[in-house]
Amino acid sequence: MGVRDSGRDIENQSGSSVGQGNPNLTPPSSDPSIVRDQKKGKPKNKRQGSRLRRKSNVEKNVEKHTVLCWMVDMGTIQPNDKVYYKDENKSVLLDGIITRGGIRCNCCHGIVTISEFETHSGSKNSDPLKNICLEGGVSLLQSMLEAWNKQDGSKLQVSNFISVADEDMNDNTCIVCGDYGNLLCCDSCPSTFRQSCLQMNAGGGMIVQSGDALFCGSKCQERKS
């Protein structure tokens, strides 16, 4: 599975290089800096057992769809729902508003990811899904599991995935938190997840570990066996 290469040569639809036939434009290949870039090989993916660990490379102008967007689509949360980050004593450290693109944080008034919302709260728990709750006290983890159970089939057909190059068949965001980073791949489907989310998911049933293999659900494990 390849990593998306954003440094491809630019060609027009007729197959000729941009600038051909125009003396005022310099073909890309004549620029020494671009020639150097063209000589660079694609980054190599390293496999650990049957798992693939990689650093996602996402362009800023590519629209990101989060796991919150998927939960909204499944009806377990709603846009404009108020959420709170609570510590182990159930004290509210931070509040925000659910949007399809993330959480609107009341400390910075920006749209942030689930993990970033935890960071803004000042908590060091590294367990945002359990500690971010709706007004009724239901955690985002409970809402996620409810959405999972409502969905037909076990593979997470969520919209927190990103448009990537055709040769990159794996998703570029974590299936659990929707964030980027060093991702592990399901051994049966294109879903990916961060290693830190394996511990956060303990007992949740969304990620199944079997020996050296990792699966995003029991059905994926059954298909592989």
From TrEMBL:
Domain Tify: residue ranges: 96-146
Record field: compositional bias (Basic and acidic residues): 1-11
Transmembrane feature ranges: none
Compartments it resides in: Nucleus
Any one biological process term the GO annotation gives: regulation of transcription by RNA polymerase II
Pfam families noted in UniProt: TDBD
GO molecular function: transcription corepressor activity; zinc ion binding
Gene3D superfamilies reported in the protein's UniProt record: Zinc/RING finger domain, C3HC4 (zinc finger) (3.30.40.10)
Segments of skewed composition (Polar residues): 12-24
Listed Basic residues bias regions: 41-55
Keywords, alphabetical: Metal-binding, Nucleus, Zinc, Zinc-finger
Region (Disordered): 1-59
GO annotations of cellular component type: nucleus
Cited InterPro entries: PHF12, TDBD, Znf_FYVE_PHD, Znf_RING/FYVE/PHD
Official protein name in the record: Tify domain-containing protein
Organism: Lupinus luteus (European yellow lupine)
